[in-house]
Amino acid sequence: MRQSVAGGLCVSPRTLLTARGRLASWRNVRWFLGALRLTGAETAVVVGNRQLREDFVAGMLYIAGQRRVEVVEGPLSAWLSHHPQAAGAGTTRGVFREAIYTAWPRTRLVVLRPELAARLRRGRGGPRLVDGRSYKRYERRGHIPTARSLPMADVTRDQGALRSLISVRRPVVAYGAGPYESVAYFARLRMLGVPAQVFIGGWQDWAQARAMRTRRGPFGGLSAPDKALAAALAGAALVVFVWRMTRRR
Questions:
Q1: What is the pTM of this model?
Q2: Residue 131 needs a FRET pair 20 to 30 A away by CA distance; which of 48, 137, 197, 224 works?
């Protein structure tokens, strides 16, 4: 990487996904992190020019057990323009694993399809499902029963929805179109203070299982967008800052 933070480690989402867009095995993920010379005890700061990629990488690191994960908000190019002394060439992983990734994975944050189906069958007291796809896809292509729509594109400006998710007493389970979007959406919610879990297979995994029920048509959002806040954000100057993911396991 020519334009990066000097000495920064280059992590492409493709290295954490299979050719079909599924997550690589956790064994391979941990080997890859060891090849990056990570042990899990470090504070990982994720930077980049595309928010979805940054959030996905941050989410994978956090689930894998990284002690602390931070994401620099805004494009890397904008951040470097304010911190030119930090610019330099990035580095890639080694051919061989140079460290042993010893962090304990946060498996309790991951929900698989059979578990989610069982929890939904219990009915009352089940999880609060949040669908991060666009509302158009949520409405026309279907969604998991009881899931509420909160598109990832709207999540930072819908303060009413965020407050309800932070204060809800039921477990919050987030999902997107597939593993890539689901992990990124989960990471963004965690960075905003929502103690979410992730249905890691996403809508694709649920819809492909013929025994699983789906629902079409509107089911309603969590709350109406805060228009005043959205207008204020649109007119505000851009500020580079860091979202911090909670350290609670």
A1: 0.80
A2: 48
